[in-house]
Amino acid sequence: MPKAVRITETGGPEVLRWDEVEVGAPGAGQALVRHAAVGVNFIDTYHRSGLYPVPLPSGIGSEAAGVVEAVGPGVTVVRPGDRVVYAGGPRGAYAESRLVPAEVLLPIPAGIDDRTAAAVMLKGMTAQYLIRRTYPVKAGETVLFHAAAGGVGLIACQWLKALGATVIGTVGSDEKAAIARAHGCDHVIVSTREDTAARVKELTGGAGVPVVYDSVGKDTFLNSLDCLRPLGLMVSFGNSSGKVTPFDLTILSQKGSLFLTRPTLATYTATRADLEATANDVFDVLRSGAVKVEVRHVYPLADAQQVHRDLEGRRTVGSVVMTP
């Protein structure tokens, strides 16, 4: 029988269990996919810890690449033998093989390998909706991107640079600063020893930036507001340091009639047309060379506990994948 990582309770990495599972034949609208590579994302730790509650017991993980082995009745978007990738649908990507709603599957273009596909889709599509749709960044603008050496950050900063933006990134160490500079950041702030808002104001001649992209959450939120120019947009899309503490909305008016949004990839790719358009945009920047994805960490799927320890301990840089 195939094996998968599952949780029956929330908690630390130790709750991740490597169990045999029964997969079965695909039903209507489903495809059976044998995984070649599984993507790892910080949101996986939220589901495991209970920060984002999920019904238990549950699979975990939302992103993988592999080969379609069979399809159920009514499936027309993929066929057996197709190389496919997905970043969405029901949780359960930490598995050797599984049934997946066919509508979330996307064909992998020639020239893109399985590990890259598994590593890039959720992060790449997140970067796409953030910088092309939530706030469409234009050439000549200066933007702030937190966690610039993270999985989404490395993709987004390269893409922003290709768009002609000036990119200010924050990181937690000198090692990560070097990586961020090599991936599109014009200016890097080491947030563990520098005041981000003061440095942003210095770099922008006191004006501030039109948009801040913040996946850190609690530790950076209020300081991020101080980085914005009047009428600027705060894009809060993650909580790696914890959930943002409730605050008085009048702070937004006091700091310059600011805008605040908390977007999700699920909303931006809710229709098949939006999903395909978003993914195709990602594939296009990969094939053009404007964005390069480096899979820096590869673990066996059975070692998911160690993967989560390393992820939460900030011991990973860029993309992480697991292989069955």
From TrEMBL:
What region holds the Enoyl reductase (ER) domain? 11-322
Keyword set, alphabetical order: NADP, Oxidoreductase
Transmembrane intervals: none
Instruction: Read off the InterPro entries from this record.
Output: ADH-like_C (IPR013149), ADH-like_N (IPR013154), ER (IPR020843), GroES-like_sf (IPR011032), NAD(P)-bd_dom_sf (IPR036291), QOR-like (IPR047618), Quin_OxRdtase/zeta-crystal_CS (IPR002364)
Q: Which GO terms describe its molecular function?
A: mRNA 3'-UTR AU-rich region binding; NADPH binding; quinone reductase (NADPH) activity; zinc ion binding
Cellular component per GO, a single term: cytosol
- NCBIfam families (alphabetical): PRK10754.1
What the entry lists under PANTHER family is as follows: QUINONE OXIDOREDUCTASE PIG3-RELATED, QUINONE OXIDOREDUCTASE-RELATED
Under which name does UniProt file this protein?
Quinone oxidoreductase
Task: State the taxonomy lineage.
Answer: Bacteria, Pseudomonadati, Planctomycetota, Planctomycetia, Gemmatales
